[in-house]
Amino acid sequence: EPEVTQTPSHQVTQMGQEVILRCVPISNHLYFYWYRQILGQKVEFLVSFYNNEISEKSEIFDDQFSVERPDGSNFTLKIRSTKLEDSAMYFCASRGQGSWEQYFGPGTRLTVT
Amino acid sequence: DAKTTQPPSMDCAEGRAANLPCNHSTISGNEYVYWYRQIHSQGPQYIIHGLKNNETNEMASLIITEDRKSSTLILPHATLRDTAVYYCIVRIWNSGYALNFGKGTSLLVTP
Asked: Rounded CA gap, B39 and A112, in Å?
């Protein structure tokens, strides 16, 4: 069965550093999403992306965050200058045209020290 | 999006039906009810969705009351692998379709 993959599974970075989290959505999907989950808290929506542009974003998704689909397969989330409070599990998801279901990846655990 | 209310936790014996309630009393006519679950910090997994009719798939059944103010997710024969946090989400169908997860119900299936 097709699945969303994410790399790395765990990333440790120092405060102020830039990080790029990578996702490979399911190949024929057109809608892409990033969510995060701080340890012990609920899953929070960050951003949705369609047709090479952001279609919706939350208040969390400020100027420190950016997303990109650099080629036909990858979808990335960049955090420009990480803060301690960015430590969380980051989930990528994708959805096909006309589909109700978002498929989530296994997540990248980001630890900012 | 309409607000949803779910019990924080529930227990169910293995092999029995698990009935997970969700209250969405402010739901509007064009809002759908979606259920996802998250097994121990894995990525959330879609279960089922509905508008006003009851729905069933290979994973579960969704019963929506006639006034649409509440719904129940039914796992007909719960297994230990069904232990997870279950999220009831209400929102309209649109191109963005961002999911707003609440705290959900933590379901523990016991042997």
From this structure: 25
CA distance linking residue A100 with residue B34, whole number of Å: 9
Residue type, B71: S
Q: Are A50 and A30 in contact (CB under 8 A)?
A: yes
Is the Cβ–Cβ distance between A89 and A106 less than 8 Å?
no
State the best of B31, B37, B46 to mutate against chain A, taking most chain A CBs within 10 Å: B46
B93 contact partners, CB below 8 Å, separation of at least 6: A100, B30, B32
Burial bucket for residue B81 (CB in 10 Å: 0-12, 13-18, 19+) = exposed
Q: Which two tokens stand for residue B77?
A: 């024969």
Residue A57 tokens read as 């974003």
- pLDDT beneath 50, residues of chain B: none
Taking only the tens place, the pLDDT of each residue in A48-81 is: 999 999 999 999 999 999 999 988 789 999 999 9
Backbone angles phi, psi at A39, to 5 degrees: -50, 125
Residue numbers of A between 44 and 63 with CB closer than 8 Å to B: 44-45, 48, 50, 55-56, 58
What is the spatial distance between Cα A84 and Cα A31, in angstroms, rounded to a whole number? Answer: 29
The rounded Cα A108 to chain-centroid distance in angstroms is: 9
Q: Which of A82, A76, A94, A72 is nearest to A2 (CA)?
A: A94
